[in-house]
Specification:
Largest sheet of chain A: 5 strands, antiparallel
CATH superfamily of the largest domain in chain A: Jelly Rolls
Number of domains of chain A: 2
Distance between the termini of chain A: 35 Å
CATH architecture of the largest domain in chain A: Sandwich
Structural class of chain A: alpha+beta
Largest interface: A-B, 48 and 48 residues
Strand content of chain A: 15-25%
Number of helices of chain A: 8
Oligomer: homodimer
Helix content of chain A: 25-40%
Shape of chain A: elongated
Strand order of the largest sheet of chain A: 1-2-9-4-7
Radius of gyration of chain A: 19 Å
Number of strands of chain A: 12
CATH topology of the largest domain in chain A: Jelly Rolls
Chain lengths: ~240, ~240
DNA sequence: GCCAATTCAGGACATATGTCCTTTCCCAAT
DNA sequence: ATTGGGAAAGGACATATGTCCTGAATTGGC
């Protein structure tokens, strides 16, 4: 991590994401812009948090590691997203490890200032509420989805979600930031089993493999399998209520 | 559901849970106390929510039903807890169904008033943040735990969590509010499989069955199996940060 | 271009879990 | 007490998933 001393760019981000009201005058001097490279850890499970981070550029991966060493990827996030919000409110150690999967820009602010100047600032509180309820919503979906559906369905859903926004029938493979084993850990299964299911999909003509890259061939077929249930990136338009 | 016209009791609850600052003067006239009987639905998945409820007495069960008809019990809650908070903030349909598993008292307030008089009221916003981050924390744990551990471990953990607070080696069976099939749905497995695992536990001398009731015999043994991971009721002391 | 080291795909087997169905047991209404 | 219904437990089988290991493929360094 390195601090980016570029007030102009910071302001640019604040404007782009309409954060001016969220971080009001007294907080501004304590905002900093930070850059992370692919693979950098932004924060680590179990440690004492110090900063609230706002992801404004790039892509991050959030995961947890069990005492037995298993890794579970909880989500991939793109802007606008906040890291350390739950820990800030609850005063607990960092819940999950966060890693940059691309070049990343984050706005950081120390808890102390956030607390000192922000604890009564309704727009900030509402912003946190928006973000956290969204996270809750996604995690809630994720929990039910994972517990109620076999890997086959989860993989179909996953493939749809990662290939939808990008180019047409996007590929997805090893050096493309998100590796296959990340995908396995995200779906909550073993790498071995993931391969097994991918092969089934190949046989059904739903996808094709090409040099470790998965190419979606039949989105409709995958949708039928996934049955509505899509891993929601569900970015609500926000603020309908508050 | 029936409204309980007893201002005194309502005030009693507000004091007992220190909600005076949360629901300030302008909100008070719009608070009502409601009673639900065992089995009553407090709200239903998919519907449009209207009230924010605060659970002040009794026990409720939160579950979701998939399109295929499978039920997943997400949690059991006791006071203090809030229902409809996420929906209030996000303006979305009700996420999960909530059912009373005992006689229940809840304080209800319509969203319109909450919004009109509360949207800038920092103590209320902070209260919601506390509650929602706690929910997030629990759900996050639950997700990883379920995805990373076999039913055996989850059951051990579950048994410990439901028998810890109550009497010594508490029983847990059919008419005791929480049925075995509820337990199965909570753990995220089938009733059949739950029975299978219970039998293993019996053989190992960890528990005993007696007329459909499970009696914990060896808490230490269960702890060893669960390995630290307990379904967290994790009620933080709250408010360290905000 | 060749080799070692690493990553990737898949085989073989064991275990975990789900589904369906049968059996047993309890209780309530007669 | 008798009986029918329904809950509770378990048997039998199929499927889903995990673990371990091997062979193939790929890459970087020389």
């Amino acid at each position: 991590m390195k601090e980016i001393q570029d007030r102009e760019q910071l302001n640019h981000y604040l404007r782009a994401f309409q954060l001016d009201s969220v971080f009001h005058e007294p907080l501004l001097p304590h905002l900093s812009l930070y850059g992370f490279e692919q693979g950098d850890l932004i924060c680590t499970q179990g440690q004492a948090p110090e900063y609230l981070y706002v992801l404004v550029n790039g892509k991050i991966k959030i995961y947890t590691t069990s005492s037995e060493g298993k890794t579970l990827v909880l989500s991939f996030k793109t802007p606008l997203e906040v890291i350390g919000d739950v820990e800030y409110v609850r005063g607990t150690p960092i819940l999950n490890t966060v890693e940059a999967v691309s070049s990343v820009h984050m706005i950081g602010i120390q808890y102390r200032w956030l607390h000192k100047y922000g604890k009564d600032h309704a727009p900030l509180l509402r912003f946190l509420l928006e973000i956290i309820t969204q996270k809750f919503y996604i995690k809630s979906n994720s929990l039910s989805f994972n517990l109620m559906h076999p890997v086959e369905v989860r993989l179909a859903s996953y493939l749809l979600s990662v290939t939808s926004d990008e180019s047409d029938s996007r590929l997805e493979g090893q050096q493309s930031e998100v590796s296959l084993s990340d995908a396995a850990n995200f779906i909550g299964t073993s790498y071995r089993h993931l391969n097994r299911v991918i092969r089934q999909f190949c046989n059904k003509g739903l996808v094709e493999r090409d040099k470790g890259v998965i190419v979606v061939k039949d989105r409709n077929g995958l949708s039928a399998l996934a049955g509505h249930n899509i891993y929601e990136h569900h970015r609500g338009k926000g603020g309908t209520r508050l």
